[in-house]
Each structure stands twice: as structure tokens, then as C-alpha cells.
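Posting this for the archive.
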Amino acid sequence: MSTTHTVIDSPLGELTAVAVDGALTGLYFEGHLRMPAVSAFGERTDAGFEEVRAQLAEYFAGGRTRFDLSLAPQGNAFQQRVWRLLVDIPFGETRTYGALAGELGDPGLAQAVGAANGRNPVSIVVPCHRVVGAGGALTGYAGGLERKRFLLDLEEPARVREERLF
């Protein structure tokens, strides 16, 4: 098992991408909450991260709405179920923790969904920023609420942005 990492510049600061045998296992912001120890990231290299770098650049430029990368985030079975739901939230849309809990079959799981969301190791690519509190309130984000707002604004459909202006 070969673990490597690279650092990618972004409009949100440096992102650390971590891969195991070529599959992305982590994408972390500077100051990311619950980030593993840097010693677990393996050797630093740019090799093997070309597609991650290219797709992130396309996303930040507004040209990519869904990522197509090999992913292998590490988590328990419940976390994996939640993270799969996150990938299915369309670009420019949000879901509440309660709505995701309902999709899992138990609206009472909203807090557990929030905990799993907060432990998503592949920020942006697995779009945990698209999950909001009841009524659309911005709630916790491992990269900080300012970054969450940036990502939601980046994804906001033009028609919605225009409606807000008038």
C-alpha cells in the first residue's frame, strides 16, 4: 500500500490531497478540523495527482459540476452511506441533515448524519459543503464557515443570483 500526498493551490488556500495506491483518500484545507497527522500522508509528490489538480481547477473556474476521480475515503459503514448520499447532491443544490437522515430511512438520524458529514475526509470532491441546517442555516464545516459560504456561492445558479439582485 503506497500513500502519497501533494499540495494544491486553490482560491481557498492550499489543499492537501492524499492518495493510497492512486485513489484519493483525503482532501484537506489548511487548519482542517479532524485532519489526520501529516505523518500519515506519506511521501510528498506531484506524480499521480494530475487529474485531481485538473478537476479542482475546472471546478473553481466554474467548468466542472461533478468530479470523476477514483475515491477511497476511510470510514465506518454508516459514514460511507452518508458520503455516498453527499456525492448525489446536485451541483448548486443543498440538503439538510434531516433530509439526508430521511433518505437513510430514519429522520431521527440527523445528528448522526451531521457527525458523519463532519468527518468526510474528501472535502469539495465529496460535497459535504452542500449540507445545511434546518431552514438553510449554515452550520459547521471542517474547513470553516467562510470556505463553506465561498463554495456555496461558487455553485449558486446564475438565475438565483440574478433573482437576489432584484
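The longest strand covers residues 23-29. The mean pLDDT is 93.
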